[in-house]
């Protein structure tokens, strides 16, 4: 990772800011290393016993990153100890949603960030399943929102605004070809509900008066086929999109196993507003 300091800009700054937000610091994820980000870095350095200089070098990155160098997008509220029902499923149950506890049955739960500015992979997809009677969990970085490109360029002749999936539980997805290209988890079995954002800016607008219901192709798919994407742009016109190819492939491996082991082809998807 690059050395970052006050005045730095770019995707590495965005990653830094997201990590700091997950550590509990109240800053924007905008890719600009300003005064608030510098102050958060200094406070984090002090909390870790590091030299407090507001500069993000090897020591600060080392404290923020996992041993394999991946940034860790798992806040405390989503971490699972391995005992009992995972916290995300407890939350879903408390909201009245169904959970599935059969062997190899996937529970896919999206968590939408409260950030209103679009174009970042700042949401989460949590997958929980049982294997040999024990719960397992994976947390992957995704976007649950459309990218800026589509928010600015939606076709007025065809739709009344860019699609933003309404939080709720949907029994609409199965494995199929995304855009006729590769296998993903696709909306084929039932209708879903979407807000229509017609403001043509990079901020999300979720007005209940704009909700429509239908088959919109709100799929769960990947972004880049070569690794990782840091900005959403054209990758999502309303779909739920993985930031990392490896995470998408991990999801699809579990999905194919569900079908193979259980014969169940439907994948329930629950989208929650962030509560932590």
Considering the chains and any ligands shown, give keywords for the structure:
276 residues; alpha+beta; Muramoyl-pentapeptide Carboxypeptidase, domain 1; 2 domains; 8-stranded mixed sheet; 6 helices; globular
Write the layout of secondary structure elements.
Elements (H helix, E strand, L loop, with lengths): L10 H12 L12 H13 L10 H7 L22 H8 L12 E6 L10 E9 L2 E10 L4 H6 L8 E4 L2 E11 L3 E6 L4 E6 L14 E3 L5 E3 L17 E3 L2 H18 L4 E7 L3
What would you note in describing this structure?
By secondary structure, the chain is an alpha+beta fold. It folds into two domains: 54 residues, Muramoyl-pentapeptide Carboxypeptidase, domain 1 (Orthogonal Bundle); 192 residues, no CATH class. Helix content is 23%, strand content 25%. The protein contains six helices and eleven strands. The strands form two sheets. An eight-stranded mixed β-sheet has the order 6-5-11-1-2-3-10-9. A three-stranded antiparallel β-sheet has the order 4-7-8, with no helix packed on it. A hairpin with a 2-residue loop joins strand 2 and strand 3. The longest helix has 18 residues. The radius of gyration is 19 Å and the shape is globular. The two termini are 28 Å apart. 38% of the residues are buried. About 2% of the residues have low confidence.
Taking pLDDT < 50 over at least 5 consecutive residues as the criterion, the unreliable ranges are 67-72
Give the H and E element order.
Answer: HHHHEEEHEEEEEEEHE
Mean pLDDT: 91
| Spatial strand arrangement across the major sheet | 6-5-11-1-2-3-10-9
Let me know the largest β-sheet: 8 strands, mixed
Shape descriptor reads globular
Cα(first) to Cα(last) distance is: 28 Å
């Amino acid at each position: 990772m690059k050395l970052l300091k006050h005045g730095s800009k770019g995707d590495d700054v965005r990653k830094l800011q997201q990590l700091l937000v997950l550590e509990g610091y109240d800053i924007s994820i905008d890719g600009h290393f300003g005064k608030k980000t510098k102050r958060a870095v200094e406070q984090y350095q002090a909390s870790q016993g590091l030299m407090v200089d507001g500069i993000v070098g090897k020591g600060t990155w080392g404290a923020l990153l996992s041993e394999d160098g991946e940034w860790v997008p798992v806040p405390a509220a989503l971490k699972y100890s391995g005992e009992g029902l995972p916290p995300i499923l407890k939350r879903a149950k408390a909201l009245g949603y169904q959970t599935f506890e059969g062997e190899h049955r996937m529970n896919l739960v999206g968590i939408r960030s409260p950030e209103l500015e679009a174009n970042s992979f700042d949401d989460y997809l949590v997958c929980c399943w049982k294997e040999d009677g024990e719960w397992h969990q994976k947390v992957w970085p995704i976007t649950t929102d459309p990218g800026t490109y589509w928010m600015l360029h939606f076709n007025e002749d065809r739709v009344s605004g860019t699609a933003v999936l309404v939080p709720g539980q949907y029994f609409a997805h199965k494995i199929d070809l995304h855009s006729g290209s590769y296998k993903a988890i696709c909306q084929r079995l039932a209708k879903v509900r979407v807000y229509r954002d017609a403001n043509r800016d990079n901020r999300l607008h979720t007005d209940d008066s704009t909700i429509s219901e239908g088959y919109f192709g709100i799929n769960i798919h990947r972004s880049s086929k070569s690794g990782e994407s840091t900005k959403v742009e054209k990758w999502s016109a309303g779909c739920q999109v993985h930031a990392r190819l490896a995470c998408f492939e991990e999801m699809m491996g579990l999905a194919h196993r569900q079908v193979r082991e259980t014969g169940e082809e439907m994948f329930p998807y629950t989208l929650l507003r962030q509560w932590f």
